[in-house]
UniProtKB/TrEMBL annotation, chain A:
Its main location: membrane. One of its GO terms (cellular component) is plasma membrane. The keyword Transmembrane applies. GO terms for biological process: amino acid transport. Belongs to the binding-protein-dependent transport system permease family. LivHM subfamily. Pfam families: BPD_transp_2. It comes from Enhydrobacter aerosaccus. It is a multi-pass membrane protein. One of its GO terms (molecular function) is transmembrane transporter activity. The chain crosses the membrane at residues 6-26, 33-53, 65-85, 97-116, 136-160, 189-213, 219-242, 254-278. This is Branched-chain amino acid transport system permease protein. It is found in: Cell membrane. Keywords: Amino-acid transport, Cell membrane, Membrane, Transmembrane, Transmembrane helix, Transport.
Automatic annotation (TrEMBL), chain B:
Gene3D superfamilies: P-loop containing nucleotide triphosphate hydrolases (3.40.50.300). PROSITE patterns: ABC_TRANSPORTER_1, ABC_TRANSPORTER_2. Residues 3-235 form the ABC transporter domain. It holds the Pfam family ABC_tran. Belongs to the ABC transporter superfamily. This is Branched-chain amino acid transport system ATP-binding protein. CDD domains: ABC_TM1139_LivF_branched (cd03224). One of its GO terms (biological process) is L-amino acid transport. InterPro entries: AAA+_ATPase, ABC_transporter-like_ATP-bd, ABC_transporter-like_CS, BCAA_Transport_ATP-bd_LivF, P-loop_NTPase.
Length: 283, 235
């Protein structure tokens, strides 16, 4: 059995790493839960954003927050444009899976052509910064990511719950016709939501650029885990997505510390299956 | 005339379900459309609510041509639907369902006032305001559906089979409520299978059979027609 310090450190690292799962899951969950579109290209957009932040940072010396200020609005536009396609061709839930998968493959190929399949790393002086709390190390960048993800999750959750636009979106997800009969212009709101989801991919991509090593095939690396997170967090629930992300992150990290690193991938889906079978009241 | 339809043809896919429907509802009126199951009553009311496009004919509301408007543009003109089977947003709370009724800017401005009125009309909903609408009983769900329509500050309320699936004891209350909605100032178009009740509160009525309007008039005249007596009252 590993020491308490090791377990505590694993828990902290896991929860913080889970913030990334949550951040990636949020956009996917919003579009799946409220628009009935499963957007696999969400991961591709996140990595495309990461590569752009990397390119601007390494070639032109642009600070990542300035890059984010450019990339995030562009991604919003990409998301809205994607919805235009879905709407134009009456794409349903299953077809959206196939179409966005193709879109992701195209983006992956594009990244590979421009940036090659080599591993890329955006080195910054703060990427390895950490501070010490008692015996535990807390990485600064991951902490910032978690704070950003929490603010977004909470803000989005409140937006869906408290504003008329949010209520209109939730109502239209349940019964689009009746929502329309009370004046909800679902298409207009769907453009907005699709854009917001993609903008979140842009934010996630900025952090991916700073934290991870980039390679085109990495697009698919988080697919399984993030899907589990989306489902555990309940479709369309951004706060649930974040908490589920942290839960899975912590479980993975603890499994790695207690068992062996090879166990990590087993954990997310085991947790998913357990939770689906258990179906607790609070979910 | 508040609502006028002229020679409406409405249908799903290739087959029209309603032919040549011409009917009027004036302000302050309760107008019932009666007819057997499958006659096209719901199709007709959904077209008037904007949920179905008319293939042919004119639909005018307060002089405005509604024929080419989109579904979400109907409510703003003062048309509110109480749909068949209630169709609440089951996962959302009772109050959120009501708030959806005042989604549009004009109705939103009167939110608190409208909410008070609905809670005064259905006190039980105030107690249940934070519960998911899907957890309510059938009668309470019907109250939410009517409340949602009233929140829109409508000039006409379209009721589609409001008594369907309700306990007999509540059915009378439901028809009292419909009269009250009219007395409070909105016109009512009511589609019902419960012929006696529907004719009992109506100022005028239409009979819809196999997609066509086959008779119209004031309730007493309709009840005197042998065909109506035979088909709907079994006498």
């Amino acid at each position: 059995m590993p020491s308490a310090t090791l377990l505590g450190q694993a828990l902290i690292s896991g929860v913080l790493a889970g913030g990334m799962y949550g951040l990636l899951a949020m956009g996917l969950s919003l579009s799946w839960g409220l628009l009935r579109l499963v957007n696999l290209s969400h991961f591709a957009l996140a990595f495309l954003s990461a590569y752009i932040v990397y390119e601007l940072g390494t070639k032109y010396g642009v600070a990542p927050w300035w890059s984010a200020a450019m990339v995030v609005p562009v991604m919003f536009g990409v998301g809205a444009a994607q919805y235009w396609l879905f709407d134009r061709f009456h794409v349903n839930e299953l077809a959206s899976l196939l179409i966005t998968f193709s879109f992701a493959v195209i983006v992956e190929a594009g990244i590979q052509i421009y940036w090659t399949a080599d591993y890329r790393r955006f080195e910054t002086h703060y990427s390895t910064l950490s501070f010490k709390v008692g015996p535990f190390f807390v990485p600064v960048l991951e902490l910032v990511l978690c704070v950003v993800a929490s603010v977004l999750a909470w803000g989005t959750w409140m937006w869906l719950r408290k504003t008329y636009v949010g209520k209109g979106l939730r109502a239209a997800a349940e019964d689009a016709d009746i929502a329309a009969a009370y004046g909800v212009d679902h298409r207009k709101l769907a453009y907005l939501l699709s854009g917001i989801g993609a903008a979140y991919a842009g934010i996630a991509g900025t952090f991916i650029a700073l934290i991870a090593t980039l390679a085109p095939a990495q697009i698919w690396a988080w697919l399984g885990v993030v899907f589990a997170v989306v489902i555990i967090g309940r479709l369309g629930n951004p706060l649930g997505a974040l908490l589920a992300g942290m839960l899975i992150g912590a479980s993975e990290s603890l499994a790695m510390a207690v068992l062996s690193p090879a166990w990590a991938p087993v954990v997310s889906f085991s947790v998913l299956i357990v939770i689906l079978l258990w179906d607790p009241e609070w979910l | 005339m508040l609502l006028e339809t002229r020679h409406l043809h409405i249908g799903y896919g290739d087959a029209p379900a309603v032919w040549d429907a011409t009917l009027d509802v004036d302000a302050g009126e309760i107008v019932s459309v009666i007819g057997p199951n499958g006659a096209g009553k719901t199709t007709l009311i959904n077209a008037i609510a904007g949920l179905l496009r008319c293939r042919q004919g004119d639909l005018r509301f307060d002089g405005v041509d509604m024929t080419n408007l989109k579904a979400h543009e109907f409510c703003g003109h003062g048309i509110a639907l109480v749909p068949e089977g209630r169709r609440l947003f089951a996962k959302m709370s009772v109050e959120e369902n009501l708030e959806l009724g005042c989604y549009l800017q004009a109705a939103r401005a009167a939110r608190s006032d409208s909410l008070e009125r609905v809670y005064a009309l259905f006190p039980v909903l105030r107690q249940k305001r934070l519960q998911p609408a899907g957890e309510l009983s059938g009668g309470q769900q019907q109250m939410v559906a009517i409340g949602r329509a009233l929140m829109a500050r409508p000039r006409i309320v379209l009721f589609d089979e409001p008594s369907l699936g309700l306990a007999p004891a509540i059915v009378d209350d439901m028809f009292d409520i419909i009269v009250r909605v009219r007395d409070d100032g909105a016109a009512v178009l009511l589609v019902e299978q419960n012929v006696l009740k529907a004719l009992g509160i109506a100022d005028r009525a239409y009979v819809l059979e196999q997609g066509r309007i086959v008779a119209q008039g004031v309730p007493n005249e309709l009840l005197d027609q042998p065909h109506i007596r035979e088909a709907y009252l079994g006498v």
